[in-house]
């Protein structure tokens, strides 16, 4: 027996067992493999590995608030996650200087010893963060949780 992850034309995923790969092809071609959700017989094999979100980011202290990049941010964020992010935000705000849109510039100055070394946070564009990474300047992007009181 062979186990296949299957996907119908409407994108429903389900799985099925077949005698062998020819068994699946033959049954699918005869319309014998139907989606349990919508009954579609337009079924094909899906990839076996789950997709990894392209923009997964670890919550590590530092700059670049990006509220829009939160996965499932549409009010669906679990309370525990929101609480952790709010705590993280508090820590960053307490311990770091806010430098706003000058983040990339300021990070570069600190890196080159042109100003007092300290934790900073602020916003930067994708181009700026890319340039910083290329220069070997370490920073992290974190999802910026809304404040408790907002
Ligand atoms: Zn379906």
Note down, in words, how this protein is organized.
By secondary structure, the chain is of the alpha+beta class. It folds into two domains: 2-45, no CATH class; 67-134, no CATH class. It is 29% helix and 15% strand. The protein contains four helices and five strands. A hairpin with a 4-residue loop joins strand 1 (2-8) and strand 2. It is elongated, with a radius of gyration of 24 Å. Mean pLDDT is 80; it is low at 56-60. Zinc ion (ZN) binds at residues 8, 10, 12, 35, 37-38, 40.
Structural topology:
Layout: E1 2-8, E2 13-18, H1 21-29, E3 43-45, H2 79-95, E4 97-100, H3 103-111, E5 120-122, H4 126-134
Parallel strand pairs: 4-5
Antiparallel strand pairs: 1-2, 1-3
The structure holds zinc ion.
The site of zinc ion has 7 residues, from loops.
- Overall mean pLDDT stands at 80
Strand order of the largest sheet: 2-1-3
Shape label: elongated
Tell me the radius of gyration.
Answer: 24 Å
- Number of helical runs? 4
Strand composition percent: 15-25%
Number of domain units: 2
Distance separating the two termini = 56 Å
Bound molecules: zinc ion
Helical residue percent band: 25-40%
The biggest sheet, with number of strands, parallel, antiparallel or mixed sense and barrel status, is: 3 strands, antiparallel
Give the low-confidence spans. 56-60
Structural class category:
alpha+beta
**Helix and strand sequence:** EEHEHEHEH
Query: How many E strands?
Result: 5
């Amino acid at each position: 027996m062979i186990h296949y992850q299957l996907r119908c034309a409407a994108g429903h995923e389900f799985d099925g067992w077949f005698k062998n790969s020819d068994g699946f092809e033959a049954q699918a071609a005869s319309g014998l493999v139907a989606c349990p959700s919508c009954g579609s017989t337009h079924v094909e094999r899906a990839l076996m590995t789950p997709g990894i979100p392209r923009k997964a980011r670890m919550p590590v202290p530092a700059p670049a608030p990006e509220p829009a990049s939160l996965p499932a941010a549409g009010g669906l964020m679990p309370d525990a996650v929101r609480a952790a992010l709010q705590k993280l935000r508090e820590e960053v705000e307490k311990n770091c200087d806010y430098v706003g849109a000058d983040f990339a510039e300021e990070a570069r100055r600190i890196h080159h010893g042109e100003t007092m070394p300290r934790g900073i946070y602020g916003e930067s564009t994708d181009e700026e963060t890319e340039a910083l990474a290329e220069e070997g300047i370490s920073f992290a992007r974190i999802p910026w949780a809304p404040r408790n009181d907002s």
